[in-house]
């Protein structure tokens, strides 16, 4: 990453200390290496010329039943006040309930954009229109919570079949 710096907006109250000073003191008390610096310049000097090599991780085991759900909270449906604000309800970010999936996933399930599908979990079922979106990973569906139509689904993997 890039080096980022910030200046304090004001003085810390009474005996409060900057986070880096607290970490330096804790590292020193615990006898850990890498905490020999005495100021931010020393801390940055010890961090700069380091290269990080990411290690490969194992692929998660695929569950055998249903699709993974990427659920988000609908930004303008989070509480009673915003649900009743006409201006917020007409905002472009306030979309109708739907199930979004990758086009390859839709082809595998033999469904098309706009088609109604039955989405089910152990907790309940919902009938939602399909939206195709290449940003949704295959094997996953995106369902926005906060809608009456999506409330019965609860959490967990889902099955999707044509309605």
Automatic annotation (TrEMBL):
What Pfam families does its record include?
A: Molydop_binding
**Entry-linked Gene3D superfamilies:** 2.40.40.20
**Would you name any one GO CC term?**
membrane
Gene Ontology annotations of biological process type: cellular respiration
Gene Ontology terms, MF aspect: molybdopterin cofactor binding; oxidoreductase activity
Q: Which SUPFAM superfamilies does UniProt cross-reference here?
A: ADC-like (SSF50692)
N-terminal signal peptide:
none
Please give the superkingdom of this protein's source. Answer: Bacteria
InterPro entries xrefs: Asp_de-COase-like_dom_sf, MoPterin_dinucl-bd_dom, Prok_molybdopt-oxidoreductase
Domain Molybdopterin dinucleotide-binding: from-to ranges: 95-149
Obligatory cofactor(s) = [4Fe-4S] cluster; [2Fe-2S] cluster
Please state what the protein is called: NADH dehydrogenase
């Amino acid at each position: 990453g890039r080096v980022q710096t910030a200046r304090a907006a004001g003085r810390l109250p009474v005996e409060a200390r900057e986070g880096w000073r607290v970490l330096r003191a804790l590292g020193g008390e615990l006898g850990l290496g890498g905490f020999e610096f005495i100021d931010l310049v020393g801390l940055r000097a010890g961090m700069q010329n380091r290269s990080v090599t990411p290690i490969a991780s194992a692929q998660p085991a695929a569950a055998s039943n249903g699709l993974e759900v990427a659920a988000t909270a609908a930004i303008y449906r989070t509480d009673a006040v915003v649900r009743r604000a006409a201006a917020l309800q007409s905002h472009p970010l306030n979309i109708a309930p739907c199930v979004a999936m990758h086009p390859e996933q839709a082809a595998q399930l033999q469904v098309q954009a706009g088609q109604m599908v039955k989405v089910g979990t152990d907790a309940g079922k919902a009938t939602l229109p399909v939206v195709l979106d290449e940003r949704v990973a295959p094997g996953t569906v995106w369902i926005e919570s906060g809608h009456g139509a999506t409330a019965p689904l609860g959490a967990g993997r889902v099955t999707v079949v044509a309605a």
